[in-house]
Amino acid sequence: MAKVLVPLAQGCEELEAVTLIDLMVRAGIEVVTASLDDERVITASRGVQLIAQTTLDQVLGQEFDLVVLPGGLPGADYLNEDPRIIELLQRTVQHGGLSAAICAAPKVLVSAGLLDNREATSYPGVIDVEPAPGMQYLDLPVVDAGSVLTSKGPGTAMDFALILIERLCGAEKRLEVEQGLQRS
């Protein structure tokens, strides 16, 4: 079973966080949510309260198949300012896992050096104005650049989650989850 970490920062985008978590759980993926500090109640960008299962310090020694960052502000800024997140993203990719971010959170992937010489997307005005060295910004809902995936914003969260499920569990599992959602 795949294991995924979703760090939840104060001010994260709730629609993105909940959509990513919910769809991956539907796929049978072990999803761990972690707050950046000891305050496990997260007040998201629109005031919705989320409760993290654990803290980042408690899971730092664990290996994950995917670390995925919800966007939103100021949540993405808090993730970007946390050296533990940067190191965790880098280590995950170095060990053959995936790192992913949506909305404003791809800026953290830029800081981690994971978008150097890759294609990527984000919420407009985030990484298209301050790209990584050699990065090509694509105005697409989701960009799969191998071990690093990015997505544009809240409206793309479901497609992003389904692509992450496919990468972790295969096309059959993605289709199973997607059919249960009655998207068509």
TrEMBL record:
Q: Which CDD domains match?
A: GATase1_DJ-1
Q: Where is the DJ-1/PfpI domain positioned along the sequence?
A: 2-166
Which Gene3D superfamilies does this entry report, sorted A to Z? 3.40.50.880
Superkingdom per UniProt: Bacteria
Pfam families recorded: DJ-1_PfpI
Q: What is this protein called?
A: DJ-1/PfpI family protein
Tell me which species this is from: Thiomicrorhabdus heinhorstiae
